[in-house]
Every structure is written in structure tokens, then in C-alpha cells.
């Protein structure tokens, strides 16, 4: 069974974590990876809580087939964690599938893996994505190599469907 890491931090956009989490659990082993293991993280709206399974310091690219990065304000904390950023960088170097939605590409910016990549994000961070060397486009879901990006929660059906298709290749 393929194994997918979903990154988690406080202030995640609930639909962008919960929708892929449950969809991916239908076919894959899903592990929530936070800065700390066995820690409860609270969504952006303040009511929904989910607990990390492992710490990013314990996440190894060799243990996973893909990583999914939800948005909201959680990617700001994710990109401040050297272990989280290094995990995403290792996943990219290993050619593993990387999904990021909304503010999730901030982690890709910090991992310095967007040079010459066609990508999208929520419009408010498009300048950051462009400054990281990406060709930013305003499209529902963008696939460039192993990186799959999307803009907002309304793009989740197309983004998660594309993520699964890419993971099955």
C-alpha cells in the first residue's frame, strides 16, 4: 500500500486538510506529519482539531510515496521548520509526488524547488512563487513534473483527483 504524508500545523484551512485526508485514506496509508509528533493542531476556523502521527524530524522521503501540503495559514509555520522544509526537499530530490494548495506553495518556495516550474497558488502569494523562479499561472490545478499545485478550496476536487492519478502512474 502506498504511503502519503500530509503536513499539518495550526491554522490549516480545514477543507484543504480534511478533504484530501479522507479521500486518500480510501486507497493509501496516510500519515499526518507535524513539527511535533502526537500533537493536536487546530484549524484556521478554530474548532476542528487533528493530531499528528509523527514529527517532521522523523519523516524520511524513503518512507513515503507522496506528500500533500494544505493551505490556510499553517504553511507559514511549516516553512519555519527546518525539518519540515528538508523533508519536502528530500521528497522532491527523490522524485516523489508533491501536492500543495493555496498557501501550501510557500513551503515549496522555502525548499527552493520552484525554479522553472509552472505552478499556481492563492493569488496573494503569487509574487512569492514568481520570485522563487516559478512560472505562476492562474489555473485550477497545475502539474509540472512531480509538483501538483492548486489555488483554493474550490479547486480541491480537481486537485485531489489529479494528485491520485499522478500517484498511480
UniProtKB/TrEMBL annotation:
CDD domains: GATase1_PfpI_like
Matching InterPro entries: C56_PfpI-like, Class_I_gatase-like, DJ-1/PfpI
Keywords: Glutamine amidotransferase
Pfam family, one: DJ-1_PfpI
Domain DJ-1/PfpI: 2-165
Domain of life of the native organism: Bacteria
Gene3D superfamilies reported for this sequence: 3.40.50.880
Entry-linked NCBIfam families: PfpI (TIGR01382)
Family, similarity comment: Belongs to the peptidase C56 family.
Protein name in UniProt: Type 1 glutamine amidotransferase domain-containing protein
Source organism per UniProt: Anaerococcus martiniensis
Amino acid at each position: 500500500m502506498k504511503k502519503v504524508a500530509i503536513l499539518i500545523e495550526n491554522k490549516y484551512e480545514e477543507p484543504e486538510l480534511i478533504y484530501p485526508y479522507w479521500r486518500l485514506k480510501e486507497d493509501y496509508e496516510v500519515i499526518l506529519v507535524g513539527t511535533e509528533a502526537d500533537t493536536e493542531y487546530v484549524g484556521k476556523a478554530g474548532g476542528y482539531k487533528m493530531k499528528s502521527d509523527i514529527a517532521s524530524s522523523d519523516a524520511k522521503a524513503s518512507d513515503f510515496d507522496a506528500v500533500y501540503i494544505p493551505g490556510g495559514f499553517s504553511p507559514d509555520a511549516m516553512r519555519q521548520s527546518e525539518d519540515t522544509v528538508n523533508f519536502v526537499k528530500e521528497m522532491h530530490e527523490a522524485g516523489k509526488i508533491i501536492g500543495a494548495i493555496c498557501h501550501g506553495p510557500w513551503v515549496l518556495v522555502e525548499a527552493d524547488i520552484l525554479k522553472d516550474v509552472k505552478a499556481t497558488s492563492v493569488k496573494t502569494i503569487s509574487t512569492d512563487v514568481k520570485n522563487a523562479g516559478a512560472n505562476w499561472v492562474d489555473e485550477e490545478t497545475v502539474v509540472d513534473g512531480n509538483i501538483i499545485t492548486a489555488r483554493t478550496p474550490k479547486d480541491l476536487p480537481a486537485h485531489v483527483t489529479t494528485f491520485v492519478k499522478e500517484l498511480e502512474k
